[in-house]
């Protein structure tokens, strides 16, 4: 694992007082290596910012509701519903977020194909068991649906891209 040699903070790069950022409740991320904090989807509804507790939460729920419906409709791996669920549940690294665990750069791998397939199979198992929609989020989280900070931050960043619910 490489070591950080020269950390470049947002505040230094743009000439902003780091104390002012802290007072505003804003993160002063590193720009040349990943920042470890991530977005916990279970806390979206508790945000004090309407664009998060309303908009982001609604987007998150719509994204995963669609994914669950597709997995429910899928009759075999690689059918149309399965492929579309895979597209929605693949979370590549979003450049420029600087969130994750990289210590030498901000270039990451996101969820990757193996984690995506594991996520889909677990989600499909939960759906096929007839778990009520109101319990699916908790069941999927408990079973690894949200598998760690790096995957979670990629998942949260990706639904914001154009064309996602």
Descriptive notes:
With 165 residues, this protein is mostly helical. It has a domain at 45-91 and 108-160. It is 49% helix and 0% strand. The protein contains 7 helices and no strands. It has helices at residues 10-14, 18-23, 50-73, 80-89, 112-128, 133-142, 149-157. α3 packs antiparallel against α4 (80-89). The chain starts with 9 loop residues before the first helix and ends in an 8-residue tail after the last helix. 25% of the residues are buried.
Count of discrete alpha- or pi-helical segments spanning 4 or more residues? 7
Tertiary shape: elongated
- Estimate percent helicity: 40-55%
Radius of gyration: 18 Å
Give the N-terminus to C-terminus distance in angstroms.
Answer: 37 Å
How is the main sheet built? none
Unreliably modeled segments: 142-165
How many strands in all? 0
Structural class: mainly alpha
Q: Note the run of SSEs as H and E.
A: HHHHHHH
Q: What is the beta-strand fraction?
A: under 5%
**Nearest-integer average pLDDT:** 75
Question: What would a concise description of this structure say?
Answer:
With 165 residues, the protein is mostly helical. The chain has helices at 10-14, 18-23, 50-73, 80-89, 112-128, 133-142, 149-157.
Summary keywords:
165 residues; mainly alpha; 7 helices; 49% helix; 0% strand; disordered C terminus
